[in-house]
Amino acid sequence: MTGGVNSFQVSGYGPERAGWTRLLARDSLARRMDWPILLSAIALSLLGSLLVYSATRNRTELNQGDPYYFLVRHWLNTGIGLALMVGAIWLGHRALRTAVPLLYGASVFLILLVLTPLGSTINGAHSWIKLPGGFSLQPSEFVKITIILGMAMLLAARVDAGDKPYPDHRTVLQALGLAVVPMLIVMLMPDLGSVMVMVVIVLGVLLASGASNRWIFGLMSAGAIGAVTVWQIGILDEYQINRFAAFANPELDPAGVGYNTNQARIAIGSGGLTGSGLFQGSQTTGQFVPEQQTDFVFTVAGEELGFVGGALIIALLGIILWRACRIARDTTDLYGTVVAAGIVAWFGFQTFENIGMTLGIMPVTGLPLPFVSYGGSSMFATWLAVGLLQSIKLQRPMSA
Amino acid sequence: MTNIPETGRNLRVQIRLVVIQVLVISLLGTLGGRLWYLQIREGDQYAKEASGNHVQQVVQPAVRGSILDARGVALADNETRLVVSASRTDLMKMKDDGKAVLTKLAGVLGMKPADVEQKVRLCNAETPQPCWNGSPYQPIPITDEATPKQALQIRERAEDFPGITAEPQALRRYTSPGKANTAQVLGYLSPVTDEEIQKAQDSSSPYLRSDMVGRSGLERQYDKQLRGKAGVTRYEVDKLGRVLGQAEADPAQPGANLVTSIDSRVQRIAEYELNEAMKEARKQHDRNTNRNYEADSGAVVVMEAKTGRVVAMASNPTYDPNAWVGGISAKDYAALTGKDSNYPLLNRAIQGQSAPGSIFKVIPTAAAINAGYSFEGPYECSSSYSIGGQVFKNFESQSFGGISLGRALEVSCDTVFYRLSHEEWKRDGGNKPKKNPNDWFYKTSHQFGLGEETGIDLPNEVTGRVPDRQWKKDYWTANKDSWCKYGKKDGSYAEKIAYENCLEGNRLRAGDSVNYSIGQGDTLVTPIQMASIYAALANGGTLYHPTVGKAVISPDGKTVEEIEPKAHGKLPMTKKTLAQIDEALEGVATRGTAAWRFGGWPQDEIPMHAKTGTAEVHGKQTTSWFATYTKDYSIVMTISQGGTGSGASGPAVRNIYNALYGVSEDGEIDKKRALLPTPQKNLPTVRTDGTIQSPKISKDPAKDRATPSPGASTPQDAPADPQQTGTTPSPENTNRDTRRRDRRRGGAPRPADGRTRRRARTGTRRTTS
Mean of the pLDDT values across residues A41-63? Predict the structure, then answer.
């Protein structure tokens, strides 16, 4: 591994090739890209933009009088995300490996910044940094990537060097330490949803790294005990507990806490097989579901596109996850495997949690649906992850 | 996957990756399954919940149909008033729940801010009136009496008054054309109650929260036709109640117009004359009680004789039906229904019942014929008639010798009817009645339609009462316990009566039959019943269900649903008997007890028939009854505690006839001044645009007539009321109120007119002709 190597050169493409020929050559970059992932992600982003538009075109208090406000921004975010993906491919995940300490440090700095007066609170979660020009940044989204990259770097270093078949306990401890620091900070925000995602990422990363079973089961039990402890000693805010209580019994308080879940379920349930038609949903138009352009965006699909639309979103995410698993398994170096597996854990859990809460089978937490939910930071982070997946796939032959 | 990595990728990682993959796919599968469950299996349920979530109804009230008189003059219509309303949903969107706007509005309207706020708050268990009982999505009326200036202020500064509208709206108006207020016949409206909404929920005409419902009179009887159908617009609203779009709209269908047979001019005159007659009666001294007549209530019915249609129906005391419009105030309500109100809401023409006195006598006349007595007689009109030790006297103890039944009607001879009734009673077994007694006198009453509703198209008509054997039995069963407890053999008058009733109140006694024969005793009738009977006498014997409604005309005038007069029976008499009674009643008007009231009447052109009645009521002054008919009309008037039949009611009835036919005081007929010489046949025209062709009506038809107001002064050379003066009239021009007295109680000097309390064995009633 040498740092800062241009991936195009590494891949062995000469500058003499040009245009479509080069693009369509059997071993070309375009040919070897994982198109199912890319196309699914683009499809989800575009579909997401329509759903976000549907949910916000009437919300004058949010869209500042411009019904296309969120639509345009979603496209913009997607565009920036695509650019970030290209950048990630350009750099390559191995090149990034050398930059991991820097990236990790930067992301931790940013989440620390959130705890300072610079941070701001949105929907009960103090996890944002307001930027000039009406933008805001949610650093915890990027921490998810740096945890994956950092842990992968530590765990795979000696294995990829051929020193050991599996990461040893010391390495695992170091990796855990690396993950725990930002997790604690995020916990303080408090952004419980992100912490949950990070826990799942850590488990996925460790699982894929080949760490001892003892670590896996030990951590799972520790997690369970930790969760109970957290519950008991009351670190959680009341609204967070209420969300869980309402999850357990949504009829508990239909006007209060249970309102979200109830209205979300009514919206989805009323969609039927084919839905009420895009922009025709009464629950959506009537703004009965809160946070519908972000956390509850799936309800728009459920109501307006019905089972067909909802299942399509799940299927597209399924394609991404399936291909990501393939990439993880097909990659020759453990670093790539672990990174890919970490992304699978991240996307998989976030998808399940986000859609699950709208369907009433998971408690409500503030997590976006990858690609579909409106939100710059999460969009950028997920597209970066796509870039990493592509990079892992593209670099495979070189290791061969 | 088969491609094992060349780098010797260890199996553990490979297996774990497969585990992750399986886990991820199964989680996604779970989501898909749950999605299917919610959307496909339970979808309908959620769809229903969703629609309940976001659809709100707004009701546009239907314009209520007008109530028209026979010529198309509106008796009740709608007027446009400037109504200022507030939209609750708009107010609630404001930071202070619209408080500032309402305060500003109160300033413009000159109301107290607190009052305005109370009007827009929603009613619930804890909120006392005033509060808004309707849908929160319905604009809530703040006032219906805004001036155009106020409305302009609100509209021009719409930005200062968000959620406030000032718009003209249709409200019920009782127009009182030519001062005819027709209150009890028209009835009134009040808001629908929760119970009614519940009850009518699944019927073909469900109520809306905002509906006004007819509570009495025609408004109630024809409520369904008049009400129309309110328009409902269903709006899709968002979570905050903001309107997103119109889902569905049923336009309001205005109610149909009801054409009545009432002629507002005649109605006005009837009301006016009744009131004047009562005022006049209050000036008259009653020698029996030694105070002026109270004339506490009265009623008059003018009926088309050939159809049973009601041309005028007045009840006194009366009220202003507009008091109900826009919600009645507590004060007004107390004034209309309180203990001291004398119940002006009652329509005494159909809800007031009292003993008919001598106007009843046509019934025993027919009964006697049916029982086999001859019309001609002669029957002894003695000065008194005694049964056992009990003596029933004729008026003034007068005697006319042997006379026919016709003459007995003319002079209102009581003893003739006493004798006949008593004889029949004896024939039926007397105190030991036969198994199947003929009961001619009672049967005939039922055949005349007494003791049951006439079936007029007005609600809550009362039945009156025929005190026959069955009723005696039922009444005794219901009351014997208290009678037997209270009664004492040698107690006070009331105790003695109770004692007698306890012993034998279940039987029809001789005294009962005697009292009954002249419309006294327990006999009760309503003015509408008597009007129907006298109309039947006029039309050849057909009893009609009286009607006020004549036709229901759709708002565009295109469909006309006529309400045909319906006969329900024939008077139980032959043509010959009818003619004989008819002649006798003409005799009453020309030379009998009513003649002094019809002096100068053009009898040849317009044959007048009449019967007077002065009924005694225990503990009260006499009830005046006057029943009359011509070829086309029958008019019956009664005044409670008003004096004698012809004395109190006579001039009023004469004046109504004068107006109908255009007869002047000296008997000249001026056709131009006749209001309604023949009943109104044609229905008024409702044009397709909903306007109604109607004649102009003068300010007050009662004042248009040059004749001096009747109650105020009796016709110039008409004699003073012979009943009052006690003069003995000649047989040719007589008015006789026959009196009977109970010899056992008698002895005390009697008032000059011979009126006296009489105690039959039943004891509680007094009789007169």
Answer: 89
Suggest the residue from A56, A270, A319 to mutate for an interface test with chain B (most B CBs closer than 10 A): A270
Interchain contact, B10 vs A344, CB within 8 Å: no
**C-alpha distances in Å from residue A190, one per residue of A59, A113, A128, A219:** 27, 14, 11, 22
Output the pLDDT for position B238. 66
What's the gap in Å between the CA of B47 and the closest CA on chain A? 4
In contact, B584 and B407? CB cutoff 8 Å:
yes
User: 10 Å Cβ neighbour count for B672?
Assistant: 6
Residue B59, pLDDT above cutoff 80: no
Taking the Cβ of residue B376 and every Cβ of chain A, the question of whether any pair is shorter than 8 Å is answered with no
B246 inside 8 A of chain A by CB: no
| CB contact set of B494 (below 8 Å; sequence gap of 6+) | B486
pLDDT at B51: 74
**For position B533, what pLDDT does the model report?**
95
Residue B47 touches chain A, beta carbons under 8 Å: yes
Q: Which of residues 466-495 of B touch A (CB under 8 A)?
A: none
Model confidence at A135: pLDDT above 80: no
- Do residues B767 and B616 touch, judged by C-beta distance below 8 A? yes
Q: How many CA atoms lie within 13 A of B440 on its CB side?
A: 23
Using one digit for the tens of pLDDT, what is the confidence trace for B472-489?
889 888 888 888 888 888
Q: Give me A70's structure tokens.
A: 């969120």
Among B16, B17, B46, whose Cβ lies nearest the Cβ of A269?
A: B46
- In this complex, which of B28, B40, B244 lies closest to A307 when CB atoms are compared? B40
Q: What is the pLDDT of residues B75-125, one digit of tens each?
A: 998 887 788 888 887 887 777 888 888 888 888 888 888 888 887 887 777
B437: alpha, beta or left? (left if phi > 0; alpha if psi -120 to 50): beta
Q: Treating both helix axes as pointing N-terminal to C-terminal, what angle do A139-160 and A376-399 enclose, rounded to 10 degrees?
A: 20
Which chain A residue lies closest to B243 (C-alpha atoms)?
Answer: A286
- Does the CB of A267 have a partner CB in chain B at under 8 Å? yes
For A341, which of B12, B20, B239 is closest by C-beta distance? B20
Residue with tokens 């020193």: A163
Task: Dump pLDDT digits (tens) for A257-309.
Answer: 567 778 888 888 888 888 888 888 777 777 778 788 888 999 999 999 999 99
In the stretch 69-108 of chain A, residues with CB closer than 8 A to chain B read: none
| pTM, rounded to two decimals | 0.63
Return d(Cα B502, Cα B291) in angstroms, integer. Answer: 35
Question: What does pLDDT average to over chain B?
Answer: 82
Arithmetic mean of pLDDT over chain A: 83
**HEC letters along B166-217:** EEEEEEEEECCHHHCCCHHHHCCEEECCHHHHHHHCCCCCCCCCCCEEECCH
Q: Which of residues 309-328 of A touch B (CB under 8 A)?
A: 310-311, 314, 317-318, 321-322, 325-326, 328
* Interface touch B25/A166, C-beta < 8 Å: no
Preceding omega of B378 cis (within 30 degrees of 0): yes
Q: What is the largest CA-CA distance in chain A?
A: 68
**CB neighbours of residue B196 within 10 Å:** 14
Q: Enumerate the domain spans of chain A.
A: 34-399
Distance, CA of A159 to CA of A154 (rounded, Å): 10
Q: For residues B511 and B281, is the Cβ–Cβ distance under 8 A?
A: no
Mean pLDDT of B213-236: 84
The answer to whether B53 and A284 have CB atoms below 8 angstroms apart is no
Per-residue pLDDT band at B504 (split at 50, 70, 90): confident
pLDDT in tens, B139-173: 788 888 888 888 888 877 877 888 888 877 778 88
Judged against a pLDDT cut of 90, whether residue B135 lies above it is answered with no
- Record: contact A273-B40, CB cut-off 8 A: yes
User: ω before B749 within 30° of 0 (cis)?
Assistant: no
